Amino acid sequence: MYPVQLNLKGKHVVIIGGGKIAWRKFSKLKSEPCSIDVIAREFHEHFDTIQPTKHIRLIQADYQREHIAHADLIIIATNHPETNDQVAQDALPSQWVNHTGDRKQSDFYNTLDIEHNGLTISISSHGQDIQRTQHYAAKIKAWLDSTKEDMHE
């Protein structure tokens, strides 16, 4: 994998799913300068706090191929493997896909970012183990917070 940070300005992101994982992905994206559609039959209670805008739409519906037709980036996060696989099959080669249930069908994985004194430190398990990633990120953050920064060491 080639680590990058994406400039999503003017891009269209579609999240298929409305549960905890979809919320976690949405939470990181909602402040980006992109448009976001979240498609789900039901939404996790956290989505109740979101006011739709011209850039954020919550669409209560079953997935249809048309939902991803104009997406630049697609995040698949339902608890229905058949739906997840169908979305991955429907995606065009030019669309970037993150299939949270099957990393083999993903074009990218998210990183867990640690912000510290103007730096962003990213950690990833390549989509394999979010709990392990969170555990190590917490250790790194605690170490950074406990260490006196000396730029001249």
TrEMBL record:
<keyword id="KW-0560">Oxidoreductase</keyword>
<dbReference type="InterPro" id="IPR006367">
    <property type="entry name" value="Sirohaem_synthase_N"/>
</dbReference>
<comment type="pathway">
    <text>Porphyrin-containing compound metabolism; siroheme biosynthesis; sirohydrochlorin from precorrin-2: step 1/1.</text>
</comment>
<keyword id="KW-0627">Porphyrin biosynthesis</keyword>
<dbReference type="Pfam" id="PF13241">
    <property type="entry name" value="NAD_binding_7"/>
</dbReference>
<protein>
    <recommendedName>
        <fullName>precorrin-2 dehydrogenase</fullName>
        <ecNumber>1.3.1.76</ecNumber>
    </recommendedName>
</protein>
<keyword id="KW-0520">NAD</keyword>
<dbReference type="InterPro" id="IPR028161">
    <property type="entry name" value="Met8-like"/>
</dbReference>
<dbReference type="InterPro" id="IPR036291">
    <property type="entry name" value="NAD(P)-bd_dom_sf"/>
</dbReference>
